[in-house]
Every structure is written in structure tokens, then in C-alpha cells.
Amino acid sequence: MVGNGETSSVASSSSSSVLVTAADGRQPLPVMALRDKIVAKILGNRVTLIIGDTGCVHERSVESDLLLACVKQLMMKNNDMRVVLMSATADITRYRDYFKDLGRDERVEVIAIPNVSQNSIFQRKVLYLDQVAVLLGMDSDSLSSSCNPGQIPSSNANMKPEVHAHIHKLVLHIHESEPDIEKSILVFLPTYYSLEQQWILLKPLSLLFKVHILHRSVDTNQALLAMRVCKSHRKVILATNIAESSVTIPGVAYVIDSCRSLQVFWDPIRKVDSCELVWVSKSQADQRKGRTGRTCDGKIYRLVTQSFYGSLRDHEYPAILRLSLKQQVLMICCSETKGINDPKALLQKVLDPPDVDIIEDALSLLVKINALDKPLSSRGRYEPTFYGCLLDSLPLSFDASVLALKFGEIGMLQEGILIGILMDVQPSPIFQPFGNQNLYVDNYFEDDKSNELAMGRKETIFMANLCAFQFWQHVFKDKHRLERLKQEINIDEPRTPEVLISDLEEEWCSFHNLVRTSLHNVSEIYEDIINIVHRFRPKFLAESGVHGYFEPYSFKHKCLLQSESARDTDALELGYENPDAITGTTCIAAPYVSRDDFQAATVSEKLMNLIKEIHMKYTGDNSYNQHNNVYNVVSQVTESALCKFFIIGTCNKGTLCCFSHSLQARRPPCRFFHTFQGCRNGDSCFFLHDYTPCFAMTAASSLCLQEDASTLAYSLLELLPFRTNDYVLILNDKDLFFSSNLSQWYDPHKIVATTHRPYSESELSSYGIKILWNIAQPWQSILKTEEFPISWGLVKCVLWFADIKDDAMAEQNLLQNFFHYLAVRMLADALYDMHVIITINNMKFAQLQVERLARECFFFLTQSFPFDETSFGKFLGSRGTTRPKQVSVPISYVFRMYPPVGIQFADCN
């Protein structure tokens, strides 16, 4: 079974394929991420494939259409395979026709399955604008002209102020005519802005209504938890289409449907996804109708005339016909399964094939950005490059993945990954009070207003949330990481329970207007992504180092708490708010982060430049190349920009104008081209779509390549100390194998090695290697200073060889204890000039999340390089399984400790 949140195989001996209609509210399984494993299981077993739940079939996402095309291809090769499709509102005739040409002499059946017993179904009554006009005592024609101005579905679907006013009147009418205060009203609106406008109208009536918001920027689980039955106020839920099918809202007796929705489509001029308001389909309207009549009788008010409703599309426009398909085309090309790895062929076999030009444009773009290699012949296929496979593997949207890897190429991988996540994740880490969404953004980042090209608002919000994440990591998380290490020294101090730390974190986040669940979500996604990157080993990963703000790690923040009984009256009126986010106390030591902290100014500048580079790639704009000689580069910097009023004949300053009146002068830069939304005017824009000259020259040469596989003994040897009294400590070298090999390249008298074996005569000792025998756990030698043969102050490098075979989790525990106790030793003795080098297979490094284990103890990865097995011995540990373009080799990872300033244990109170 695939879908409904679980996976299983079910043998079937039925002679027919079955289409089953049903509905439930569970989240769909992300099957496309597991496509190759699923295909292998299907081909190797007699299975019934069950596809569907809310949104999988009838919402017509690109992924669901591709899944059906893949399934159909597999059914043609596997006669034992059976398919069950489930949906409450799908166009069953389309699906029946789609599968009837399998040529297996089977019938396709449709079986209607009621959700509940017939006697328990509550009644639903649908009313249209004509009936609404009678209820409100209004003229039917005037109401129709304001709410439903056109006569055809292609007419303007904008939300006029009059529509909001009529919805408000309808809410009041329902409230006055319905005596049961526990019966709630659900209002469907298309955008965040329309939710705000409706909320503004309801805000003065806080004594009557408890208003809840359902939008992707609001934590849905928290919002639903807040929707308790209220006996003193009537609940009014303002929702976008997120409430159509993915959530179940208890107690809804009335639905007001604006019959509008926000639809994403590909803008071929700006080369970006854009949004427009459209009328919903009948299928969507039925989904919205289904939100009531579950626990009581329900009424649905559709703000269109019945005749107009009859002209709406039966089903929503498939996403596969609206989007650029670049991400899906890349995904198909990266598939390991023959037969479904040709995008031109597969996309013509979907339920609604997209225009061939769209596929060609996507392929052309992917070739242009080096994600695909063009076929050498007309019969060849587009092959994914290393960069393309890496892009496809990241659990981010296409543009977010591209941006994240671009940051990696300029040595800012962590920032790039985090910004990419923040582009896709909602709600954001910074708390967004409804009605004043950006209230707290300036506490974390404020753009340089003096800059000629100020950042767009969206980019500023991303930067603020990036700084908020870093602020949480460095202020709250590091404080408790440090306390955990301190407790190892001061064993008499009581340990803080994890439950209490969680409560303290929730409170701290509230003080600083942060959403704890979102911060943890971003952190988890970051770990997934960085471990994927480690599996691929791009060249920039080996070359990236620790950022300058760790040297020294001096960021500080001192809370100044102020109690405010009514800190945000507007937010308190909203029932959807997370109650933990409003405690009546806030930290007034704002701004919490300045532009100088966490390299915020540098990162924001790079962000703007990278967005411009990506837009140049997407649009094929070669503005810079038109001015790439030395004279023009100099003149662009020194000459005045062309006067935009002169060019249209309206400049009245004549010779006094500070801008140039020469048609050869450079155009002023476009302030929209460097933003995520892009410039809507494309090539016709008067302003310049250009890089700064210095950035353009460096941007053109960047290319995401795989690490060079060659190995050199020098890479490791240059990190070892060479002063007479300095030593190398080797841990976890079970049979002293690597110690023996290292002694052939390095002074054995400077090596201290540990082993679990009891004391025995060893030729290694005769070489001069100091051996600690009978060390059951390698990290024990870190704590037992009385048995250590030298002073810890003389140890300048610690080597750990994680030659893992089967028990990976045991090795993870060893590594966790190693980092923990070594951090305690280094902090206690102030040993900050010590290298820690972990040699481990890169696939195991990712699987065990070694970088996260190290970060928890203030160890940061500074560099990594392939381990030279020829010089230091064969690494016999498990190499794991890989996907195309991934590598599985032993890598030496170099860590340095960067603790906060002033962390001596005596000072940490």
C-alpha cells in the first residue's frame, strides 16, 4: 500500500482493477522521494497499489500525476499488479478512461463507499447569492455585481472591499439568527491579505467572536489545539484553502465560501512562479462544503450566483499544466529506473500532458545551469550531472536548492542551507502576530537603507529569520550545552531535567518572539540536508571552513525582561495564537542581533548578488557582457547614471540635473531584479539587469563539481604537531593498525595510542610509541589523567579512527561520549589549540550525524579530505550503499573547538 501514511505489500488474485472513492484526513506519504525503492518492490512482488487520500488524486499535483503515469507503465509490465485509487471528489470517468487501455481484458470498476452509516449523515444546505441577498435584505443585482462581477469563470476574481463587507454582514446575520453559541462559522478566503481585511472588520466585535486563523504561516497544529469549544464567544475561523481537505475542524455549522483561490503559475517573462486569484472549481467547492455537516446540520453560503457556479470548471486546473516543471523534469532524469527516466516520453503519458515547449524550456534551463548534460545524438537522453543529482536529492524546492548550493560555492554553506529552508518552511521562526506580520523582524535584521539597492521585504524577512535561528543557537542552546558540560566537573550540582529545559526554552522563545517548534523544524531539516551533502562530497565541502565570528566566539546577549499585561492587544483577541507565545513578558534589549553579528551584512550582500546571478541564468540576460571591456567597467563606476526622466522627456532640471542626459550613459540598476520576485518587465525594463562588475567576473567561473578523489599523505601530516614536546593521541585504533602505519611517516616518540587489549610485549613500544593498555572505552583515557603518560597540555592533535562494521549505533554512542568528555577536558584545561581529526567513511559520517554530535560540544568542522589508504592502511569499515554520483570513501574530518568567550568553569554562573 502506498498512501495514507503507511507502506505495505498486499497480494491480490483479483481479476480486475478497482477505483475506490473515499476520503480521510491523513497526510499523504511522500512517495516520490522513495520512488526507486517502491518501483523495485512492485516489480519483485505481486502487489495491490493503493493510491489516494485527501489531495493525492483529486487535487492533481504534479507528483500525483507523475505517480499515476509511472504506475500505468509498471502495470503494462507486471500483470499481477492491481491499483486502487481513492478520492471523494475526483473525476472518476477520467481515471477510468486513463487506465482502460492497459490491454489486459480487465474491467475498471467504480465502488462508492460511504464514510459513515446513512442514518448518521447530517443535512447540508447550499445557498447562493440570490438567497444571501434575501437573508441580508439587499438588492440581488447589486449584491451580484459586487461579489460576482463577471458572467464567466475567466472574469476577474479579485476580492473587492464590498465582498469583505458582505461577508461581515453575513457573519453577523448568522450570529444573530443562530442561538447555539457553540456552532462555529468557517470563512474561506483566498489570500493572507484577504484574511487580514476580514479580521480588521471583525476586530471591534471581540466581545462576540473568538477569531481563529488557518494559513500556512500559522502553525496548523497549534491553531487547531487553540480551537477549543468556547461557551462565551462564537468561533469564527478565517481560512485559506489549507482548510479544504488537510484538516478537520470540529463544530463547524456554517461555511461562507468566497469561491476564490490563489493559484500559482509559471511566468515565462520573469522566469519565476507567480500567483493570481482564480475562481474555484466545483470539486474544490464540494471539498469546502464537506467541512460542515459532520457533527451537526450545516449551511454553505457560496458568494456566486447559481448560474455562475454552474459554469465553473468541474475540477481544478491540473498543476502540471501551470508550472515550469523544471524540478519534475530533473527528478525524472535522475531516476535510476529505465522506462520512466525520459521526461519527454513520461510527461506525454500523464493524464493531461503538458505543452512540449514547456518541457523543452525546462530541459534547456537545466542544461544551462549544468544540472543536465545534453544528449550527444537525437536518440540519446539527457543525463544528470553531479550537480543535477545533488540538486534533486535536496528536500527543498528547486529555487531554494539552487540558492543553497550557490552559497556553498562561496564558502557559506550553512547560511545557504538555512536560507533555502526558510524559503520553503512555514511558519517562520520569528513569531508573526496576525495583522502585523512583520512586527518583530527588525529585532533580528535591518537592511542598510543607505544602499542604492535596498533589499526587498521578502529577502529582509529571510535574513531576519536566519539571524533569529543563529541567535537561538548561540544564546539559548549554547548556554545549556555549556551547562551540561559543566555538570561533568561539578558532579554535586543538580542536573536540569530535559523536561524543564524544554519548558525553559518555550519561555525563552516567548520572551524573544520566536516559535520554538519552527526553530526545531528548521534544525531537523538542516541536519537532513547537510548529511545529504556529505554523501555527495562536492568540492566546496572540502574547502569550506569555520566563519570568522567564531574567532573568538564573542556574541553576547543579556535579557532585559519587562512584564506587559497587554503586550499586544490585537494578538490577544485572536484565538488561533499559540498561548505559549504570549506570556505577558518580553525582552526589551532589542535589537537582539545587529548587522555586525553572524556576518549578517556580508550574508545579505551575497544573497542579493546570488539572486541576481540566478535570475541572469534563468532569463539569459547578458547585460553585463555588453559592457565587459575595461573602459566600460570603469565608466560604469565613475559616470553618472542615465536620468530616467530625461529618457521620457520630462526632466525639467536641464544642466542642473545630477544624472546624465546622454543616451550612452549607464542605466540605473533595477531594484526588483535582485529580489526573489524578480522584475515583471523582463527585457523591456528600462533599468539595468546587471551584476556589480567585480561580482559578475567571479560568478561566471563558479561551478558545483565533485571533490577530487586523489589522496595525499601530506593532507593529514601537515596537521600533526612538529614541535619537540607536542604529542598526537590516537583513540579507537582497536588493533593499533593505524598507529603502526602512522609511525612510518611520523616520529613514533610523539605518538600516544590506546587499545582495549591487555598489556603485552609489542614492537610498537620498541619504536617509541606510548601505549595505554586495557582501555575498554577509548574516551576513558580522557578522564583518567593520573594514568595518562604525558600532560594534556602537550597533546596538540587527537585522532579517532571509526572503522565501523555493523553496529553503527554503538559507534555513535562512542563518538558522542568522545566529543562530550574531550570537550570537558579541553574546557577545564583551556586546550583550545588542539586539532580533533575523525577518520570515518563519509556515508557513515552522514548516517551517524557526526557533525551534529560535534556541534553539541562546541566542535566545528573546519576541513575534510580523503584518507590516504595507500600510506596509512586500508579502511575496512562498512562503506554503505550509494545512489548515482554519491561516494563511499574514508574521509578525515578536522574539528576545532570554538567555545564562547569567558567559559572557564569558574566563571560560568
Topology record:
Elements: E1 2-3, E2 6-7, E3 17-21, H1 35-44, E4 48-52, H2 62-77, E5 82-86, H3 92-99, E6 108-112, E7 124-127, H4 129-136, H5 140-147, H6 161-177, E8 184-188, H7 192-202, E9 209-214, H8 220-225, E10 234-239, E11 252-257, E12 260-267, E13 272-279, H9 282-289, E14 298-302, H10 306-310, H11 326-333, H12 343-347, H13 356-368, E15 372-373, E16 383-384, H14 386-393, H15 398-409, H16 413-424, H17 457-489, H18 498-511, H19 516-536, H20 539-543, E17 561-563, H21 569-572, E18 585-587, H22 600-619, H23 630-638, H24 693-699, H25 713-717, E19 727-731, H26 737-742, E20 751-754, H27 763-767, E21 770-772, H28 780-783, E22 795-802, H29 808-829, E23 835-841, H30 842-847, H31 850-855, E24 859-866, H32 869-872, E25 890-897
Parallel strand pairs: 3-5, 3-6, 4-5, 7-14, 8-10, 8-11, 9-10, 11-14, 19-20, 19-22, 20-21, 22-23
Antiparallel strand pairs: 1-2, 12-13, 15-16, 17-18, 23-25, 24-25
Describe the largest sheet: 7 strands, mixed
Shape annotation: globular
* Distance separating the two termini: 55 Å
Give the count of structural domains: 6
Helix percent reads: 25-40%
Strand order of the largest sheet: 21-20-19-22-23-25-24
* Percent of residues in beta strands: 5-15%
- Write down the Rg: 31 Å
Number of strands: 25
Unreliable segments (pLDDT under 50, ≥5 consecutive)? 1-32, 566-573, 575-582, 622-638, 693-701, 904-909
What is the residue-mean pLDDT, rounded to a whole number?
80
Broad structural category: alpha/beta
Number of helices: 32
Give me some keywords for this one:
six-stranded parallel β-sheet; disordered N terminus; Rossmann fold; 6 domains; seven-stranded mixed β-sheet; 32 helices; 909 residues; alpha/beta
